[in-house]
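note to self — DONT lose this again. spent like an hour looking for the file last time. sequence + predicted structure for the chain T wanted, 270 res
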Amino acid sequence: MHDRTARSLDIRPSTGQARARQPVLVVLHQEHSTPGRVGRLIAAQGHALDIRRPRFGDPLPDTLEFHDGVVIFGGPMSANDDEPWLRGEIGWIGRVLKAEKPFLGLCLGAQMLVKHMGGRVAAHAEGRAEIGYFPIHPTFAGEDFASRLGVPWPSHVYQWHREGLDDPAGVSVLATGADFPVQAIQVGPAAFGFQFHPEVTHAMVYRWTTRGVERLALPGAQEARLHHSGRFIYDGAVVAWLDTFLKRWLQGIPTGSPMAIPGKMAPGAG
């Protein structure tokens, strides 16, 4: 793997000048998907949500001039699928990175970001899945990021995936996991990818564990009761972290010195 430290931990700096908030572009991959809690928290900051579904023919903008950020959500497809719309979406991410606009990829969205960077997305070598609440561990770069964010990483996060991502050149790893080592990444000053699902609401957890019940039999997946009890135990920390992250992500996190400690992770990291 590429080394697990950040080459740059800067997010687009805040100008300190008041201006009208522009919409945040939301990219969804299923006909009836919603942006869940992420959408609600962004809207609470005064941003309209410009929802697009490229899979169903919605165009992606040629410029990000009229958007304050982009969130690409997950979906049942693979980032490796040979679909024209998916290849186009992966290529389009380059526009966001070039503009240094805030970008957030969740699960499939994070995998698309890694594919754009020339990385690899693949199933677990032993066929394991990560479905339910699982621990994550910040790297030293992730600890530094959390200190400037002003809130710690949640100890456990909600997962629903069978493929994982790696960390090619240009990708900094902020948090790791056990079966799927790369859990949170940063690219450039304002782009992030999370393998997990901080957007899930109470209703979404019930819907996923009901409609996707067959997935709960996969190796590594947790039974439904652990999803619901895990939400009761861990979700408070997740929402506190997510609310702060989204505010600072769109407004700008203070610049800090990049950390460069090759091959080392924070104490307690897996």
